[in-house]
Amino acid sequence: RARRQGPGCGGGGGGHPAADGGEGEGRELGGSRLGLGVGGGLDGELDKGLCGEEGVGPSAATNLPPPHQPLPPAAPAAKRKRVVAVVSARVRAGHDLRELLTKVKLLERAGSSTQAAEIVDEQISRPEPSDHLARKRADELQRNLFSIGDWNLTVAALEKFLALPAVARLRQRDAPAPKRTDQVDADTATELLVAAKTFFTAIMRSSGRRTAEDMNAFWAGAAALLPPDLFENRHGRAAMRILGVHYRVIQRGTVVRAALEDRAKGWIRLVYRGHKDRLDLRALTEWWHTEGSTEDNANKQAYRIYHSEGDNQEELAYDVHWRRAALGTDKELHRLFLESETCRSHFNGKIGRKLFVSAKCKCIRQRKPSECDCKICSVVHVNLPIWNRARANWRAHHAQTKGACTCYICADPLLTELWLRMSKSMRDLETVLLPCGKVPYAQYTAPVLVHTAPTAPPATAAVNNANPSAMPSPPPLPATSLLSPAAADVVRKPRRARAVARRAARRQEVAAAEAAPAASVPRGLPPSEQPVALLVSPLAPPPLQPQANVHAQTGMPLESKVFELHYQLCCNGKCVSKSGGSVASSRRCPNRDALERRYCGWVNSFPTPCPIDADETELITYHAWQAMLRKRGDDGGPDHYAEELVPIRATRAHFMAAFQGFVTTYFAHIWECRMMRQGLKMFEANKDGVTASKLTDYAAQCPLQRMHTATCATKMMINNGVTVVGYLPRTVSVEVKKGGIVRLERRRQQDVVVIYGIFSAAYKPSAVTYNIQAEDIDSILKYGRSIHGEAFLNGKRLPGGMYHGVLPVAEIVHTEGGGESVLLAITDADAAVPLFPEYARCVEITDGAPTQFDNKTNYHQTAIWFYKTGIERKAVQLITMHGKGVCDGYSNSPSKALNLAAAAGKIVGQDGARDVVLYLARDRPSPQTLKTGISGYWKADQIIYIYYDERLFTKSRVPDAKPMPGSSKVHMAAAKKTADAAAAKRDGPLLTSAYFCGCAACTAFNFDNCLMKDAFGSVVPKNCARASDVGFESQTVQLEDFARTLVRDRVVAVRVSADEADIEGVLWFAILEDLPIKLTEATMHAGQEFGEGWLVAHGHWFSLQGTPAANGDRTYVILPAVVMLNVNSMLRVITTPIVFNAANKNARPRRARGGGFTSGTTYLLSYSVWESLTGLL
Description:
By secondary structure, the protein is α+β, with helices and mostly antiparallel strands. It is 33% helix and 18% strand. It contains 37 helices and 36 strands.
């Protein structure tokens, strides 16, 4: 082939031979000869200037011979002249573009993406070429492309050309340069879409109803993939094809995603409405909490049971449940439930185990190794399964070796069945050995509020209660959305208007239900203290008459499950049937007619055990409590022993005798426990607006941790007396979602204050420390000030107290790890603000610790408590070894705070127990909870820390008392009121009982009208007198005690001098305007002199109108002038307030809106009240 130097057909660079030293090559194509530029140029562009406008021109070798002829010999090379090529503007532009692309590529590789983007933007911003010119260049590229070769070569060349970095970068315009991971990311995206489709169509595919967990997972996955504007962008069908789901799933998923973005608070669990054929598991859940479990005394742990969102979607509604111990395995409890009355009445006697377990609350757990177990209960619970497992083998072995047993038990099939059934479970043990069954205690049934708001106010409901059939049934709750409130508005567009109306109606019902009980909760003294001689409170509103189906305080209709329990005599082995007692025929044992000799109790049912179970030669291993040596006495001192449940290897006869004694003791013990538990429940249901519950216990001594401790070093310890006070109970409405059912429930709440009384471990907790702390608590609640200790609330030091120290200022604490934390300053409170000014009665619930609670000193303090604080006190001791309560859970809070401080390198308590109190008051001034619980009866609202100096624990403040006979059997003690305060403080009169009663009358301290006298008997009066008169209070101290009982609007009787007795009598009456104060200096008021240190109070005089009536009744009016009264001149009527009734309206003195009393209103004082008061002079 002839090679010629094409004048315009050079290859390299820009298509010119002078540009890159390229070489032109002439080729024959299609019978014509074309000059083609072939070289290593950027894009193979031909030189327009040298090869014509289109880059193609006639070749200089047109005179070549035909291809079949040989070429002539080459002529000697002639010396050519140097030709300077002319470069066009187009070629120069291509050169510049190639250099720019190279520069951009280098900048992007170096990470200078911004600078590279500026270069690209500058090129793109140039004017766009005309469409004609672009089409001409495209035709030129096409001609060059199809001049390369055959199909495969053309395709390969085109792919190589497009893969060149410069060409690829040019095609991307402003996009970044491709990376190696781009293809990997693209493949991964495809895999993710495939995995998402598999998730919806295979993993989460369901042919039936999805569970709540699966439904939440399904919609969470859909919300993660589907944008809210999917349908607006017309990509809905594409999403259906990619994910393989129905249109409704895509549409609903976008709604959930939109609601999720609007809330901006993360995923909120979706709770869905159940189906029409769903089961209501509330009765089963109640069974789990009552008959299927018991209080776990050894493991006090709080569980938050989630229900729903709060009204503002910022709070979480939940209950606080304390840990309970299941009374067996799920299999055993399922069998027991199938035999229960609850299963027969609610589930027709059939329910699957899976559904049964699904209703189990998470607060119910299996028992684990623990401390403080009840010895009586545990020894039966442990040995009963051992006996049940062993006796099956006993009978099989006996039948093989000795034949069938011929005793009186085995000879009777019915007795055999009962004998073998007795060991299967605790329920079977009670059923067999207590054949009389349980009896109902209707008067001891705690009210249960129905789960819908009332349709009429409480007064209307009470009137209609006379005819139960006339009671209007509450309307069903409106259907609520299954999704969150934001998503529910648009999930079903055709139903939007109805959904909005339903939500508005539900909000109105909630508001009406909240307002209903608030007006009926009594904040004065209870109805039990209304007109009985002079026993009436001027603060108490007219009482609500209790109705059969209406709660006495809230006016809400009730759904009460009657409390049932065995007879106490039956549990004690003295069957009421055997002793001539009457038992309802419906509660008799079904085998009573066939087995007349069978009565309650082991001995009565089975006088002698079966010989197989009572073999004298065969051995068995059972467990019993035994005293084990723990420490030898030093220097001849006594050895230290502790009881432990240990295995014992003995004969079957020995085991049967021991186990029979265990069961006999257990029945008597468990009856007291269940009655006590029901009594506490009844007390909380009947508690009014002037009564407080006080639960107190001393926590284990808390060691102060340090980051570094020497080997065998003794840590500093502190004592912590934990008291939890609950008062002002009320009923609130809560939207609760359980099992897919949304309903409005009425729940009981109260104000709860947790008090930590902290002092040095050098002083052992005793009745002295307990009563001093109790007196401070009552004073803080009622008057807002402390008496003995240094108290802190919400970062403020409360008024009162003794032995005050310097308060800390704000500081930055540096920890050992290099961190910092800010501790705020503590300041004194501006004024005394009472937390519970209506406080009139308290029920103190403690365990039976003999050194702290169950002792003579504490009984004497209970008797005189009203004369010290103005508050009636009832002391309740829980059943032995069942004394755990909410105090044990709250006792962990200070120790955890101190451990966290030690972990952060802070040194707390270096200066003693007061330093610990100051740190806690600054670091934990209030309860710390992640969410605000709408429910939770014992949820803490405030925390009070009190520091006690050891100098406060003296006999003068809490004197010793004489022993009280029979105190070991007393579980309830209350003061017996007398008019003589001095005699009461000396003799300590009490009303005692071996059982605590929580009926409505006893809750109001009206023990004479107790509703449970048949079960508990009457209260027994006892005296617990002072041991000596050493430290007995002076008259001044008694006067201060009386002054603390005076409150605003209290009617007092004032003694007058003999020369003024002829005006209105020996007693004048006044109504107080404020609390008593102590004068700091002598003063003169209305012509009377009041000395320094006197206790005075301001008030209004009652003025006698005319003379007493024929029956002795006296009529008074209230004078508007405010006068100063001497407290020492008042008649010290502490037991009951003095009451006036209006002569025309039968109402007590009430203030008008301006704060004063209505002028002209006459008030009547009966002659009986006048006579009783003058008799005290």
